[in-house]
Amino acid sequence: MSGGIGERSRNIASGINIERDRDDIRSSALEALQNGSEATHARDDALSPREFEQLVESSYQVDNDRIELECRTLLFLAGRVGLRKGEITHLSPEWMNWTEGTIEIPESDPCTKGQHDAEPCGYCRRRAEDRVETKNITLEEAADAVRHVLDEPATVPDAQITEEARDLREEVNISFEDALAQQWQPKTATSAREVTFDFDVRVELALEEFFERFDGWERSAATVNRRINRVAELSAVESRVYPHALRATAASYHASRDISIHALMSTMGWADPGTARAYVTSNADQAAREIRSKHR
Fold first, then answer.
1. Which fold has domain 43-107+188-294?
2. 4, 190, 128, 1: CA torsion to nearest 10
3. How far apart are CA 111 and CA 113, in angstroms?
């Protein structure tokens, strides 16, 4: 069980005011159990504008036309548009709104990218496994959660707590089959969003060529890694290059253009303003541009 009951208990104990109604007890405990911490990001690994352009130039050195286009499209999707690897892997023509110049990432979209027809891909299977491991709780954990939201748990009979715990566990837990049926899903609720891609004509042209030749990204998440590694090896870039570092590069690029915190949250699919604020307040390009403007 990742995180453990200690973290769950701290979530609950952080301050939940409830009445002693059984529905309130269960819903309050449920809310606390699902209050996970935000994932860390790769802001420190964001590439400079020069490094990113070096990668783009290196994509033209790939000696296979199809792979060359895939590599360059991946660089733009991750490093300029800011898509996650899972979003790129499941990109389909239905997500593209060419009139508005946006990629519309849905709340759910059944994955059929497995090796066999109508089967989900390995990425979605791992996500489903992670959801089961993270979400599911034992009866003891459920009982502990219920006790933490009671004002005086010692006065409540153990049988009643056990009954509440069973109901809570049934509400929280999910089977692997149910989790798999819900894939593909965005990482978070805010990840279902519209992402603009026509702010850069190179991105627009790359996507147009890609979808003229291919019916979306038909390969695995592992192939995304291999394509990006290939370009990195061809380039002179010494920094670590991987999908999430490229996504951080996109966030840094947007922040350098004076984009607001809320607009950055929207385009990147972040729920926490602090994540966007970290990019906006620490952007070296924006700071340098402002300093130069003051001395001219």
1. hpI Integrase; Chain A (1.10.443)
2. 0
3. 6
